[in-house]
Amino acid sequence: MLSNDESIRGLVEKCLGVEKVKLDSKGFTLVELLAVLVILGILAGIAIPSVFRLIEKAEADACHVSTAEIDRMYETYLAIESIDHTDMRFSQFLKDHVENTGSNHGEISYVEGRVQCSIHSNAEEHEYEQEDDEEVPFL
Ligand SMILES: [Zn+2]
Q1: Under a CB-based contact definition with an 8 Å cutoff, are residues 106 and 120 in contact?
Q2: CA 125–ligand 1 middle distance (angstroms)
């Protein structure tokens, strides 16, 4: 039993000794902490804008899908009822058939035979226009 107690004490002392050594080498200097903070700041500065860009693109894609869906439904509605488009009919159609156009979207409107979101559709059109302008010189 004695030998057991001694060996346990020895173990505890060893552990404490190791812990002391660990404690002594623990902790960062202020410069090391500042360096880590600066690196994290730089990484965040790179990552956050690209994340926001991804979110914007995802919202625009979702908007494109939902406006296309509304467009299809509205065209079908006009065809079934054998009526022509008016702004009044379109806003009534939105009220009756479209529950939620999303809080991140602008006003849904029907312009030149297409359903458009006042935020996303216009931006997309500008992109397409720019692409067309770039392509013209090569033809
Ligand atoms: Zn939208």
Answers
A1: yes
A2: 13
Distance 114 CA to ligand 1 centre (A): 14
CB neighbours (10 Å) of residue 116? 21
Ligand 1 centroid distance, CA of 20 (Å): 61
Report the separation in Å between the CA atom of 99 and the middle of ligand 1, taken as the mean of its atom positions. Answer: 15
pTM for the predicted model, two decimal places: 0.56
Alpha carbon distances (Å) from 49 to 44, 85, 104 = 9, 41, 18
CB 71 within 8 A of CB 115: yes
Q: What is the mean pLDDT of each run of 10 residues along the chain (139 residues)?
A: 62 61 70 96 95 93 91 94 92 84 76 88 53 49
Q: Which residue has the tokens 């156009």?
A: 101
